[in-house]
Amino acid sequence: MTNKQQAVLPHVRGYKCTLCHQEFPYDAEMLTCPDCGEKGILDILYDYDEIRKNVSRESLAQDHTNSMWRYKAFLPLQDRDFSPFLRVGWTPLYESLRLGDELGLKKLYIKDDGLNPTASLKDRASAVAVAKAIELGYDTISCSSTGNAASSCAGNAARMGLKSVIFVPERAPEGKLAQMLIFGARVVSVIGNYKDTFDLSKMAIEKYGWFNRNAGINPVMTEGKKTVSLEIAEQLNWQPTDWVVLSVGDGCTVGGVYLGFYDLFQMGMIDRIPKILGVQSTGCSPFVDAGCECKPLVVTEENTLADSISVGVPRNVVKAQRAVAESGGQWVAVPDEEILAAMSLLGRTEGIYGEPAGVTGTAGIKAALAQGIIKPDETVTVIVTGNGLKDTKNALAAAGSSVKSKPNLEALEASGILD
Ligand SMILES: *Cc1c(COP(=O)(O)O)cnc(C)c1O
Ligand SMILES: [Zn+2]
């Protein structure tokens, strides 16, 4: 399928299997450990001295690239002109004006990753996947997803002229389905759950030789997602908050969040790694159930309206558990009612519109404060991972309805809206 020699990446030392800890030379076509099979997800090892030759706090201060590509020195890619790509990353980090007070926190920052081009944090992974597929000479990229990874894969591929084949579970929200279809993807709605969807995509990718954007399999995905942490750190002037909070499904995002801070710590660019709070819905919480001792995960029902984190059989178990454990963080679960409440709370207090999984972190802060995990005087960054416009059905369930009025002032006053 590939028509090019693989580029030599001087800053990439190789792979290390997250299960058996064997090291291997870097090979972009090798996605998982040859001995452990599909569960043997790989870490990419870097030569930080090499990265240091190309990037520093000072060089970044002079860099006007307003996208995640300002951190290309940290990514397992051949250097190229990334300006033709969709503008992924460099999303705003807002200091909370009211939400922190409402939650009882002294200092809260909100990283709005719903403002990425296809409206979720997944764009960070898709951009790297598309770049890698181009580097290796593929013309088609494929993934299975609960929705956002798929629409993001489709959009980023469309911009760079790659074809995409997307597998989604039947229950994917319409907003996300519409997005991928508009981006010209070939979309398969799989009759089954996310696991069935993943399995079919795996078989098809193997058979037809497409580039594999499955986050649980391809180690470059977490690498793309780690740019959110590089941004948070730089936007906070290299003084990240005590906590970074986000929702967890497959575990790839939280794994990436940790890796970003880990890289910066290795580089000497930050002096500690924030504690990571991983948040799930009580309707599907395999990581929370396994706890901080990293017990093996038990297959869980997928019973939450937060579709993006409705993952009963997560793929990126080791990276996710390590992120929380090694950062000194915690896991919490919140019921769906709290997720819907957080959707309105975030919107009403800060003007930020998140989808259910996008605001699950916000709901988790409240739970973590109540459980004494986060202390009120600790500083917190919460990542909004996806935009609410993708899931109008749940937004309306959270927000209630408008009042009706005839077009005269008496009727308006009678409507109760002015009370
Ligand atoms: C994918 C996704 C997550 C969770 O990321 P995982 O890598 O699956 O853990 C959270 N929120 C949104 C909006 C997502 O799309
Ligand atoms: Zn292995």
Quick recap:
By secondary structure, this protein is α/β, with parallel strands linked by helices. The chain has helices at residues 48-54, 57-62, 99-103, 122-136, 148-159, 174-182, 194-208, 220-225, 227-235, 252-266, 286-290, 317-326, 336-350, 356-370, 392-399, 409-414, and strands spanning 12-17, 23-24, 42-46, 93-95, 107-112, 140-144, 163-169, 186-190, 211-212, 243-247, 275-281, 330-334, 379-384.
- Widest β-sheet, arrangement of strands: 4-5-13-10-11-12
Q: Which percent range fits the helix content?
A: 25-40%
Query: SSE order in H/E notation?
Result: EEEHHEHEHEHEHEHEHHEHEHHEHHEHH
What structural class do you assign from the helix and strand content?
A: alpha/beta
Oligomer: single chain
Task: Describe the structure in your own words.
This protein has 419 residues and is of the alpha/beta class. The chain folds into two domains: 206 residues, Rossmann fold; 100 residues, Rossmann fold. The chain is built from 16 helices and 13 strands. The protein has a six-stranded mixed beta sheet with strand order 4-5-13-10-11-12, sandwiched between helices. The chain has a four-stranded parallel beta sheet with strand order 8-7-6-9, with helices on both faces. A three-stranded antiparallel beta sheet has the order 2-1-3. Strand 6, helix 5 and strand 7 form a beta-alpha-beta unit. Helix 4 crosses helix 5 and helix 13 packs across helix 14. The longest helix is centred in the N-terminal third of the chain and has 15 residues. It is globular. It starts with 11 loop residues before the first strand and ends in a 5-residue tail after the last helix. The mean pLDDT is 94. Bound molecules: pyridoxal-5'-phosphate and zinc ion. The site of pyridoxal-5'-phosphate has 19 residues, from helix 10 and helix 14.
